[in-house]
Fold this protein.
Amino acid sequence: MRTSTLLSIVALAVAASASAQEAPASGEERERRIRVLVNGLYNPTDIGFTDSSTFTSFLEEGRSTRTYDGGKGVVFEVGAIVGITKVLGVMGSVELYQSEFDGSFEESYPHPLYFEKPRTVAGDIAGLEYKETAVHLDAVLTRAFSSFTVDVFAGPSLFFTKTDVLNTVTTASEYPFDEATVTSTSNATLDDNPIGFNAGGALTWRLSEVIGIAFQARYSHATLGIAREGGDEIDLDAGGFRVGGGIRLSF
Amino acid sequence: MTLWWTSFLTLAALLFPGVVWSQSLRPARTVWASDASEVPAMAQEVETLLRAGRLVAARTQRDGQIPGRSHERLNQYHEGVRVFGGQLVWQKEGGLVLSVTGSLYDGIDVDTRPSLTADAAAQKALAGAPLANLHRVVGPIELVVLPLADRYVLAYYLHLRGRDRLDAVFVDAGNGATVLSYDDRRSQSVIGLGVGTWSDEKKMSVQTAAGTNRAVDVLRPFGIRTYDVGFDFLSWYFYQADSDEFLATDADNEWRDGAVVDAHAYSGYTYDYYFKRHGRNGLDDAGLVAINYVHFLPQSEAYNNAFFDSVDVSMNYGDGDGETFSFFSSSLEVVAHELTHGVTNFTSDLIYLNESGALNEAFSDIMGTAVEWAFEPPGRGRQRADWVGGEDLFIDFGRYFRSYENPRAAGDPDHYSIRCLPPVCTEDYDQGGVHINSAIANHAFYLMVQGGTNRTSGITVRGVGTAQMDRIEKIFYRAFAFYLVPSSNFHNAREATLRATVDLYGAGSVEEGTVRQGWDAVGVP
């Protein structure tokens, strides 16, 4: 529902800006009406999150703590800025981000025969993946200088995320059940499509009337509402601070 | 005969589809190749059967006990249809087959083309089910070859779920008759909450079966069964109380009969102690189930005792008089004491008379105390590890039966020279002092652990300390379980513990000195 709503807004904005192009304009403005952006960005922020939960087993409370870390990586972005006036425009862009991260777990299982004698297992998980597609729809303020253009933008974002997490830890324990050993683990991919916001700016060095090189920084944010089966909600954010650069093509 | 019987069954099944006419499976051919000389040929045969499709890999289990090993289960098939119950397991390590075990059915001649569809078979099964139970078909329906006692039958294997049942049903794929049916509810091990005599909470390892919870511990490999005789003295007296009807039960799995809870849970503690500390698997070291009886005498009897019955190998706990004594299962030490009599029964079998009888009692006291120290926090007070015996049985806390630290405080000898002898201790009085002279060995054990000075000899022993108490426990266990014989005396016990010490810790070890000092202190030559 949220996805279709935002896509409708994007479509309306593009349609509105397209109709705005039909209005008479000076030649300079007309050339700058549409700018296509292609960026390569870097996400320097770790995916650091913890998935903790408690459960009842053998009349006692057990505990599960999974900690995840890593996830720096490269973001690819394409989009377009459509100028509505000389200083105001709308920008639609899509960021594609995929990174690998690792985790570790510690599980405490109540003893089947005794109170307060939990068995603990721990281990590491490697090769988890976080995939994020962010659709940003921004209002853009543009200020052109002799050979530079400065854009400042902000607006809502829709994130499409897939996050791998450790789902189950299977253990074996034999009489007298004082110890447990991990026999296998399984991962799950949790989807969520939260709506958030983004804000940032770009400095473009116009090499010609058509092409320019841009430096861009953007902060985007949304909070995921994901939980594995039997687990509590995981506190994890989408987006983050991303810097990089790319090219601008003006039409 | 077989043809006639088969014809009769078929006709009967058609006339009375709800009635199960044949209920037995035929025995399979056992396959057991674990010897290096047998395994290669058997493995070769398995390979052949696998290639021919007569065995099909079902699942592989990792060996949790021996790293690197796996156990692959291979189901038997006949012309593409699984043979119910036919299965081999081959154990492998690094690609090498270590064993092939299981069972196979031979001489299968059944036609594997069914006349009925699976849905039709399900309808047939439902038609034969009692309507009152509102049966429905649940789970998958599988075509199998069923090895009945008199023939192989191509059958559909399905489950019927009733209001309070889950039946495995086999429907003849030729004529729709139910050829085998049985209750497939697997009894399940569950953990209940037990409130003991002294209002302490314990986990009760019990079994859920037939809609209730029964005091049957199936988590521990040897098993524990606790019977609530319900004061039906005659049933208990004639050894008829070990039927399921006397098993202690609890509907909500919150057990509040302290006598049952403590007997059941403390038996488990004691078994765990023997397994973990001494590697012993049950009373007989062969997985013998432990049997507890509580409430076996009318309350008016006010039975103030507990005992091990060597005939039916059971522990029997009196209810106590309710004024001075509570339930005799309310003390972990006492339960461990009684169970240790069972261990003695299957090991040294010390004659319950005179010195051997005193050693029999002493071993139970020592192991009882050791179990108490293994599970209860040290200190003074109820359910604390200490050096007196039987204190948790007293309703007014503060009294005790025996003192290991100072036997004379309980009227018992602390030195061999003052042991109870005839004419005071005779066969007619405490079986020659079994509960009196046991104090001498108990005190020796105490001195070896805790250290101290014997009040009679004045000899001081440097104990190993309670942190290393397990070392002295192992010495006593080894001596009493492996070296003593029915007629052993105190001197034999001294020699046996010294021998056990050398076995475990070497000649000239600190422990050897401690054990020697301990026996010297109590005057045992």
Q: What stands out?
A: Residues 1-31 of chain A have pLDDT under 50 and may be disordered. The helical segments of chain A are 2-21, 27-31. The longest helix of chain A spans residues 2-21.
